Amino acid sequence: MATITKVAILGASGTLGKTLVVALLQNGFAVTAIGRPNSKPFDRADVTYKISSYDDLAGLTVAFESQQAVIEAFNPAAAENQGVIAQAAIAAGVKHLITPDFSSNTFNPYVDDLLIFEPKRQAQRALEAAVERSAGAISWTAIIVGAWYDWAIENGQFWIDKESRTITKFGSGNKKTSISRLSLCGDAVVAVLRSPNQYRNRPAYFQSHSISTNELASILREVSGDGWNIDDILLEGFVEKAKALWDKDSKDNVKDRLSSEAYRMLGTSALFDEENHYDGDFSRMVEPGWDEGLDALKESLARLIN
Predict the structure, then answer these.
(1) CATH of the domain at 86
(2) Which end of the chain has fewer CB atoms at under 10 Å, N or C?
């Protein structure tokens, strides 16, 4: 495959997309942001901006012209358009596509049980079908990084609440979980685009750390002193309660699934299942050299908490 230098991003204005744009520009890639009609324009002079609906085959094909890779950094709900996006990328001559993952391991054989990953799972099936029809004209990579711990702590969405100095412990607290800096998503994208054949047509696993809640609690006390409270949450019946809430939301025709309690609980189950049934800890599959070590985590937590 020819060297990739031109990259289009769908979802460039979101939290993930902005992070990827910075990493790509810093590493010499030419970036095109593709926004949907009526979306806020991407305001960077060093990024080309184009507009197309994600379900518009002709519009996307034009937007993808001259691009060598496409990155899907959008909300999982937009994954329903994967078939059209893949068709447009193939028609435009795009050689590599990075899927809208960047979180939990959606390639785990049991992950369908948790319901929340179905949009990504459907998108993956649509993509693989399009790749097969293209006879190898395009390839793909799914980047799996686990929870973005630094962004989540700063935004009050992690199991460490720095304001109340509370650590939420699900189950025993001994279960390890793969976590990453948000910016590691950009590092991983650059690595994949520089060596697309190495990551061709497969999930690629990257992490900053694999660590348990009890280990995190010990580090927090070391870097910021005592006074941390532990909120114990039993996992017995947790998934069943989450699924009941999900079913209720379905009956109530809830549209914003991402912000629902059911979604949060099911995502938590993916991370903290004591038997690692859903690969919340995928450290055994991480690409060689992609673990940052304990000292780096201590430094990062000290900056985030203090």
Answers:
(1) 3.40.50.720
(2) C
Q: Strand locations in the chain, DSSP E?
A: 6-10, 30-35, 48-51, 69-72, 96-98, 139-144, 147-148, 160-161, 166-170, 176-180, 202-205, 209-212, 229-233
252-304: pLDDT as tens digits: 999 888 889 999 999 999 999 999 999 999 999 999 999 999 999 999 999 99
143 vs 202: CA distance, rounded Å: 9
Same structural domain, 97 and 218: no
**In a 10 Å sphere around its CB, with 0-12 CB exposed, 13-18 middle and 19+ buried, how is residue 134 labelled?**
middle
**Angle, vertex CA 11, rays to CA 8 and CA 16, nearest 5:** 105
Q: Is the pTM of this model over 0.85?
A: yes
Kindly state the tokens that stand for 139.
Answer: 């390839």
pLDDT in tens, 146-184: 999 999 999 988 899 999 999 999 999 999 999 999 999
